[in-house]
Amino acid sequence: MHSSDPTALRRRHLLTLAAAAALPAASFAQPGAAAAWPDKPLRMFVGYAAGSGIDNAARQLARRIEVLAGQPVVVENRAGALGNLGAQAVAAARGDASTLLFTPNSTHAANIHLFKKLPFDPVKDFTPVSSVATLGFVLVCDPKTDVTTVQQLVAAAQREPGRWAYGTGNATGLVAGAMFKTLTGTDLLAVPYKSVPPAMTDLMGGRLQLVFADATLAIPLVRAGKLRALAVTGQRRMAALPQVPTMAESGVPKYDLTAWFAVFQPAGVAPEHNAKMASLVQRALQDPQLAESLRSIGAEPESSTPAELARRVATDTERWGTLVKLAGIEPE
Question: Which residues form the signal peptide (predicted)?
Fold first, then answer.
């Protein structure tokens, strides 16, 4: 009886049309969903303390990505173990494209030579996204000391073995100090910190004598007269500190140490989401204000494809193995 009801027939006909129309609509929904990614807030982990040089760079990049992606980017600091804690948190989020790691070369090239066992695999547990910048480091001291050059530092350290202490808050700082000791024949005392900012605080407070500091942290303090820069660690002088000589110019010819910042996602991320994230980082680095801001703190903007970053990890892992051996550091 109900099947002959005109109202029921019309309703059934409309439902049939709606079901048929839904089929092609569903087929077009997936590309649209992919194009709309990211569709929720992003989490960017940094394995160093808030206020550190890498944290400042990460937050600047995060602000640009927010504008481009239309989603908040929450920066989370997991300081400790030379960046390993932040990297471990991201490695554990396998397949989650919205989880990011902003890290220096420590976690993906140096730490494998500094630790007997890592809580993650730098290659298998991550999906490379893009390089962000290359940067050098600055050897700084208390401006109240009589030491104004590297040559004077070497002479003073040789006169008083063990008196001069340097703070280390990341892998590069650790290797930088050990390399300096090896190449100059000096006996300096390494004092470990969870990150570089507290080492800088102790340096300015007279509890340390030296720090091989991230340029991002050192430059403002040097310009303000709160610290004295003795040398930069790369092959070339920094545009932000043109008056400060390189280590080679200061009488340590074999000294050359630079680092990089990069973004990674966990392993297992969908290729289209990895490509979209790489595009967002690359576009953010085209912002002239971001580029100028990075250069002002001693970093040179440098984006890459995921494949290029993967190759950088491979070649730099080998290079840092050589540097760690040169510095005479045994894995812990």
Answer: 1-29
